[in-house]
Design brief:
single chain, 2 domains, 10 strands, alpha/beta
Length: 310
């Protein structure tokens, strides 16, 4: 079986201090994951030529700037303790990144940065990242704006702590399995986290709007908590039998998951893994709101795994 690669996708257009800082953090993150997993690292820089450049001289100038940038990047990557290859792709960046999954052999994951739009677009993480997340068949790690602002770095020597968010349904199995695989190979501590409070919050909103009796609701919620605790314990035991160092957290706070995790658990882990799956035709066109909001607010990188249903 061919060795899996880690694919880092970035762009060459960022000339600001913030863009350079983002790229540096992404390279550090990708190189450290490659070192720990003993995977080769491939860095793809997407150079989308602006449509308003029509002259031959302008096109040649862009190519020369790209060549110089690539030389500098290759020189920088030579100092990292990993096998790496740097290439530049011209054209549509989404198509270029996704093509790597089909043409370059098996990938471990794709690593991207999220833009973190503000104002009316504050719920977006950048069109390229959104599209890759929606279409990728391999796990995608996103370094979000909050993690970048905190200049996140993986610890070089310490064991990693991986948190996997699960709704305990079949849709979460790919995320659970990938997180367990990472934890086993990295000798990391894995924590399964389920928020029954998140489920109760949204169920309450629906039931109260229908004026369901309070006694029935309270009994149902007690049973939900008990069932969630049993299922979570069972998942932990199954993974422990496979040699994974794992424990669990059952969240009772009746709040949205993306509001709880960054504040309550984010500082206690190095990576967050979660699944995302569609609910109807509209949701197939976007990344789920919980995943998106968590990416934007998480102090650590978030790995998104698609469900089998995609």
């Amino acid at each position: 079986m061919a060795a899996k690669q880690i694919l880092l996708a970035d762009d060459l257009s960022g000339s600001t201090k913030a863009a350079r800082s983002r790229s540096h953090l992404l390279r550090d993150l990708a190189a450290e994951m490659a070192r720990r997993l003993n995977d080769p690292l491939k860095i793809v820089y997407c150079a989308e030529t602006p449509k308003y450049f029509h002259t031959k001289s302008a096109a040649l100038k862009i190519k020369e700037q790209t060549r110089r940038s690539l030389f500098e990047l290759e020189e920088e990557m030579s100092h990292y303790p990993v096998i790496s290859k740097t290439v530049v792709l011209e054209g549509d960046p989404v198509e270029g990144v996704l093509a790597q999954e089909d043409e370059q052999g098996p990938l471990e994951m794709v690593i991207l940065g999220a833009q973190g739009k503000t104002g009316l677009h504050k719920a977006l993480i950048g069109s390229v990242s959104e599209e890759v997340l929606r279409q990728s068949h391999v796990p995608v790690m996103i370094l979000g704006p909050e993690a970048r602002a905190n200049k996140f770095e993986l610890p070089y020597d310490d064991s990693l702590r991986i948190l996997v968010l699960t709704d305990l349904s079949s849709a979460s199995i790919p995320a659970e399995e990938y997180a367990a695989s990472l934890a086993f190979r990295l000798k990391a501590k894995l924590t399964l986290c389920h928020s029954v409070g998140h489920q109760i919050l949204h169920l309450k909103e629906m039931l109260y709007s229908r004026r369901v009796t309070t006694g029935f609701i309270d009994q149902m919620f007690r049973e939900m908590r008990e069932d969630s605790d049993k299922m979570l314990r069972k998942r932990v035991q199954q993974l422990q039998r496979r040699g994974v160092d794992v424990d669990s957290i059952l969240l009772m706070d009746e709040k949205n998951l993306e509001d709880i995790v960054p504040k309550k658990i984010g500082d206690a882990c190095d990576l967050i893994v979660m699944g995302t799956h569609s609910r109807g035709k509209f949701m197939t066109a976007v990344v789920g709101s919980s995943a998106r909001n968590l990416i934007l607010n998480s102090p650590v990188p978030v790995v998104i795994c698609r469900s089998y249903a995609h």
